Amino acid sequence: MKYSRLTKEQFEELQQEFINFLATQSVTADEWKNLKENRPELAEMELDVFSDLIWEGVLKSAKYLEHISPQHMHLFSINNDHMHVIAVTLKNKVDMTTKEGFNWLRENLMDENVAFLQAKKEYSDDRNLDVFKLIQQGSVITKGDLYNYFNKLIN
């Protein structure tokens, strides 16, 4: 398995897609039930293959990631050949994960306690795996509103 297995909730949301996946492998509902009961290791492998297939699609289409903690915000633009990251760091005790803290940041962008940094990061041999690792570390896929706002602000 290249990524991680989908959660039970994710499988439930993707139930029809999983049924279609099994159908492409000529596995009927009865055969799937039999596989789960009598060959659980093969059923587990099918779940893993499906999970990786879903992750590949999600990661391939991801364009922006955000990772926000109390004092740091990392905004990623996922390009074809590299990532561009904008980092915002608070040097005071303001917690930007709270509504009050984020409002403080919005109103005090040019304050001496706010630092900006940007960088270009090349991918390893596997772009999708690089993106997946950021998600495992707490980043979430977004539409890029924050990234685009800060990119215009500092560039």
Automatic annotation (TrEMBL):
Top-level taxon in the UniProt lineage: Bacteria
Protein name listed in UniProt: DUF6495 family protein
Naturally occurring in which organism (per UniProt): Gaetbulibacter aquiaggeris
